Amino acid sequence: MSGLYGNGIALTKKVLDYLWARQSITLNNIANDDTPGFKSQHVTFEDELIRRLQGTGKSPNAPLAVYRAIEGTQAKLHTTWTESSRLDGNSVDMDQEQVELVRAAYEYQYMVSSINNEITRLRSAAKAF
User: What does pTM read for this prediction?
Assistant: First the structure.
């Protein structure tokens, strides 16, 4: 998808995948709030993306290197093993999970709007030809 469309659409797709995973994990945490011994999980993405993107601008074919870095980035699942303030060993913090769920939903809506705007701009540019 690099080239004609740039890397914006590829990055938006990857971020949407990450946000979908984040919502799923958060919903799983909420569903297991009453499960004794359940350890909450969370997903990270940004740190690996930054690590992969570092140095791609110095590449002779930078747009392709950036595209490959974006495509190669995967979200990482982490489990909260040590933190638990509850007697049953469950580490789910419902207040935090609800905030994360709302945040992920808003970020997802923003990214969908962003990709829609990008496609609209591409359509407008194509009509000019």
Answer: 0.82
